[in-house]
Amino acid sequence: MTNTIHIVAFSGGLASSVVAKMVSKEDDVILLFHDTKTEPKDNYRFRWEVSDYLGIKITERFDGRDIWQLFQYENYLGNARNTMCSRILKQEQSRKFCKENLPCVIYFGFTIDEWRRAQNNQARYKVLGIDAEFPLIENRLSKECCRLEVEKWGIKPPQMYEHFDHANCMPCIKGKLTYWGLIYKYERDAWDRAVEAEKEHCHTILTDGRTLEIALPDCIRLADKYESDKQMKGLQETLFDVSCECLV
Questions:
Q1: What's the rounded mean pLDDT across residues 98-126?
Q2: Which of 31, 61, 230, 242 has the most CB atoms in a 10 Å sphere around its CB?
Q3: What is the spatial distance between Cα 167 and Cα 57, in angstroms, rounded to a whole number?
Q4: For residue 113, is pLDDT > 90?
Q5: Residues 141, 142, 143, 144: is their CA dihedral positive or negative?
């Protein structure tokens, strides 16, 4: 009888790390990571430290391109209406890996407030004959619960959490004006690369048709409001047109 493989969708953020800890007691556990080559270095530091803490190596399955190379190949600049980077660099890689390792269960780090995303994801994998589970939702855990849990391990969260609510690509082309204001304020290299990409493709990343440079004053205004309003901070719908698919 073939043993079931337990695959953790290991984005390397707080939520997926807590899921990895919850699943680590199982046999045949894989921490599956899809590298988009577009992340801050400190994200990798965090993944390695969590991997060492759990005693489980990271398994990588990736396309090999960063998001800008993918957009050049596709001759289209991704945005919230066409999130090809998530689809090609993450989702397709994940499903192929799972299909190659049946029977398996894949675990995602969606928190209690993300149950709608979990339902959609579960349906996508069910079609392929793959079970998807969501331990954080089952245990009614929030992202703040995950942060507190990781602090107990003595591991410093990725630096991205100082200003953003997730740790993934920098930048994410699904970001709204508020998100891009934060990028401009704290990750200027990523902002400059996105502005350059708009000029290369003669196309805008923002879905309202404005270029980042034209929208900059509004981006900064909304980012300042976001940082001053505790009720807004941490809400993905404030930062993204489409929920960030960090976990797949």
A1: 90
A2: 31
A3: 20
A4: no
A5: negative
